[in-house]
Amino acid sequence: MTYPQVDSGFLNSLEWRSIGPHRGGRVVAVAGHPFDQLLFYLGACSGGVWKTTDGGNYWENISDGFFKTSPVGAIAVSESDPNIIYVGMGESCIRGNVASGDGVYKSTDGGQTWAHMGLEDTRHISRIRVHPSDPNVVYVAALGHAFGYNQDRGIFRSMDGGTNWERVLFRDEKTGAIDLSMDANNPRVLYAALWQALREPWHLNSGGPGSGLFKSDDGGSTWSELSTNPGMPKGPFGRIGIAASPAREGLVYAIVEAEDGGLFWSDDGGSTWEIGNDERKVRTRPWYFNHIFADPNDPYTIYIMNMIAWKSVDGGRTFFDLTTPHGDNHDLWIDPQNSQRMVNGNDGGATVSFNGGATWTTLWNQPTAQFYHVAVDNQFPYRVYGTQQDNTAMSVPSSSFKGAIPYNDCYPVAHSESGHIAVRPDDHNIVYSGAQRGAIHRYDHRASC
User: What burial letters (b/e) apply to 377-386, b meaning 16+ CB within 10 Å?
Assistant: First the structure.
C-alpha cells in the first residue's frame, strides 16, 4: 500500500500554540520576592518557571527558550539580591509518572535570562537554600535518579554562585537528599534529610538504612547524624521533612516516615527529640508529602503540607485545615517579615494569600496542566480532549473567533485523571475516558448542557 506524501515545507511551517485550558497543574516549588509584596514565582512540574507581578492575578512563563527540561523541583530567591534566582530541575515527589530534570539554572536579572549551572545528573532536586547575606553561597539537596542508582545525590555546595559545586553530604548511591533547612538565626547551621528510595513503574520502595537526619554547624563542611539521638523513632526511616524555626534559635521540627513516626520537635538543635503529634492526618502518604514549614515570626506556628494544608499554632499538638483551593499540597513560602503573606503550591497550581491562608487567589489563570492522554473529535473546527493529572478530563476548542481561547469555552468531560480518552467518531457528543482503579466513564454532552 502506498500513502500520500505530505510536503515537508508544509510540515515545517507548523508552529505550536497554547489552547489551554487556563487552569493550573501540579506545583511543588514556589517562592516570593522578599520586598516586592506582589511578586511571586512558581515552578510547574511540567512547565518551567512562571512569575506574577500582581499578587497572583496573572502568571507569565519566564523560562521558555532557556531551559532544556520542563519539570521544576525547587526555587530559591536570594534575600540579599532578589535579582538572583536559583532553580532546581526535576520534581522530588516521585509518583509513577514523575519527570526528571537536568540540574540547576540561575538568573541574575530577576528571571529575564537564565544560565545553566551544572549538576545535570542529579535528576530530581528537592530543595535549594541561599545564604541570606551572600547570594554566591548556595546549597542544593539532590535526590538523584528516581528509577535507579547514581552518585550525584546528597547535599551540594557552591561558594561561587554555582560555577563550581562540591558534594558535602553523601550516604550511598541508593540514598539522596529530600529536604534541607537553613537556620535563619545562624546560616552556618543546616539540617538535611536523606531518603533511600527507588521508584519502579509498579512500586515505590520508600525508606531503608540510608535514610536519616543530619546537621552541620559549619556551613556544610562537616555533618553529624541526628537520627539516632534520644527521642527519635527507632526506624527504619522513610521520607523526612525538616524545618528550623526562624523565630527561636535551636527549635527544629521534623515530620518522619517510620512505623512509630509522626511530628517531632527539638529545642536543642536536634540533640534530643520529643514526639508532638502522631495523628494519621499529619502523615498522610508520607512518601509523596511530608513537607513541613515553620512560621518565621512565631515559634509555635507550623504548617504541614499533604492532602490537606494543615496549620498549628500550638507547636504541632493540634492542627486545623487552611482550606487551599486544591488538594495535595507540596510547597509553602512564607514572607520572613510578614507571616500573612505566602504562596502555596499544590496539584492544582500555585495560589497566593495575604491573610495567612484565610483566602487564596485563583488557580484558573495558569496553563500548566499535565495531560496524560489526548484525543480529537470530527467537528469543524475540531475540539481537543485530554485527561489531566489530579483533575477532570477536559474538552478544549482548537480555535476561537475570540482570539485567545477563554476558559468558558472549555468544559470537563468526566472525572478521569490518568486514563486514556476517546471520542466516538460518529457522534462527538459521546466521550469515553479511563480513570483510576480501572473505571471507565461515559460522557454525553447533550445530557450535560
Answer: beeeeebbbb
